[in-house]
Amino acid sequence: MLSQRGINGSLLPNITCIACSPGTRPSTDRSHCEVCPFNNYYNGMIHCDCSNSSHELLKSDVCAPVSSMTNWPNDIKVYNVEYPLVNQVVQSRFLKEHLRSSAYLCKMLHREACQVVANMCVMSMYRDDHVGGPCSLFRDSKRIPNSENEPLPWLYYGEGDAPIVLSRKKITTNYSLERSSWDSSLNLTAKLWSLNGTWLGIKDIHSSFLQLCPGQWSSLNAALRFAAHYKIECLIQPEQLLQSERTEIMELFLRFSSSSEPMLYAIPILNRNFKQGTRFPNKDADATQWQLTRRFFLIDTLSGVPYTTNNENHFTPSVVRYLKSATLRIKVQDGADEGKIYPPLLIVDYGEITEADIVANIPVHVKFEVEYSMENKTIYSMDVWIGVLCAFVVIWTVLQTWNHSHRSGHLAVDVITLFNLCVFACSSLSNTFFGVISAAAIHALICYKGQAVAQIILPPGAMDSYINTYITVAFFLKVIELVHMVWRQIGIDIFLIDWERPRATKSSSQPVSIWRTYFVANEWNEIQVKRKTSLVVQLLLMVFLIKICGLENWTRADPDLNSTLTNEMLHRPQNHTFCFALTVAVYIFIYGLQWIFVTAIYERFIKNGIQEFVDICSLSNISVFILEYENFGYYIHGRSAHGFADTDMQTITNQLRREEEDLVGHRGLLPASDQQTF
């Protein structure tokens, strides 16, 4: 640099040129020395320039030896970000400008640079199929780091370690289902980084932090209630997705206490978009094929910005990647560890939207869900009960078939006998399936809603499918029984026996009137639809209790028994097993009340339609003989105790008065008996 003054500050007679100290260089006007943007050591000396022969200028302040960049070639494939859902490949501007320089600085143990490369790997969906890609730096780091001081972040769990990771019993908190308890909800903590590697801090988060759907704060933050399922789905406009000015990368932790000491447990991430070669192993049902990771993001508006030399100020993304679906899955331990959980698993699935879709403002579908599961032996118990009862079904079916053959007069086993055997088997199996499934569903509903410690969790999706299958089978079996019953009723023979004798005089004949027979036949048609219960009352009361009284809210995946839909229950999905259980329970309850009322009160003190028909038969002097089978039927003895009934009203009134005063014989078939039905 040029110096006009000496060490003591006095002016020199001539301007002197002084060499700058190592690590500095002259300023542009040569008035002072300034620190070099980078220091390069080669030929045994420190240089402020970046030699083209031995070094490569990666950024304005990063000069790297060419020999150290052999694993990071300047290849266009390295900067490509694939978006398979929209069938696009974008040469990312962010990767083009920062990948190689950050990778070099990371090798020089620069912590923030390592975070930048890690964030690039996360935005690339952890793909490691290109030499020099952001994830290649972590290829040999799929392990738990030994120290937090290591500059290389922990991104990958070991390959095939998913079953081991998800079955560890390191979380010591016993969670409770009582709302007033402090451990009735899960507590989450997140570490946040910006894309440039800056650590944004660690903070406690609510469940609304993980959701892109808008909504009330109280309903969105109810997602982490223990043992309560949560599900929210919505359509949001692209402009809402782009409201976030920066993309943040995060790690999720479960916060709990162990011996009064606060603890953090890392929540593994299962990224459904992770691609290994041509496969998507994280979409398989086999957990041994999963590749668990540590980091995720909600929305990425930066990696989709294309690199272009024409317009350096172009920052509009060609594709935006967003969190389309997130499912927090928690498995509860059983046995002696009541209330304890295994490590939660966050399953993420990303969607993609193009610039054209953003301009067209096409809404996108977003979902967030919290699921609980537990080793459930209910399905096994139902299988056992069905198997045991099926043995009794066989015995009962054989007895029914033998009884039917005896009544029908079929002494030998023929085609009709085998057909009836199949029909009776369908009937018994239908009742067995429905009874076992209903009992299991009601048991699950009562136990889940009535527990304080998690001993049983919501029935899994497999149980819903199980119940649907058996109910469908039971329905079709019952249809077969109903068709057979209608066919059998069509063939029933009904005889109306008129005991009236013609009363003739010497001068004229007086035949018996047919109108009494017509009257009895008409009454018979009316009582054919008589039931112990009213179908209209049954349905109206069910609608009243389930809809108006709010019992339908009991079917929501919430451990509390609320008939009112609160804000916290808005996004609690209705459980199909609970819906079935509640419907059956309410139906049986209303049916039982009706049956008791009709049998104990209405028929006894108000009106008994069947008994009235028997009385009409007696007044009409007509008996009814119903022949259901050749050797079996029913008989209503309607022979009048007065010997005749084809008369005027005055005579009938006198007959009833005499019968009331017990001046005539009894109506029964046998002497001194009132038994008229057989």
TrEMBL record:
Membrane-crossing segments per the record: 384-403, 415-446, 535-555, 575-598
GO BP annotations, alphabetical order: cilium assembly
GO cellular component labels: MKS complex
Superkingdom classification of source: Eukaryota
InterPro entries the record matches: Meckelin
Keywords assigned: Membrane, Transmembrane, Transmembrane helix
Keyword Transmembrane belongs to the record: yes
Transmembrane found in the keyword field: yes
Protein name: Meckelin
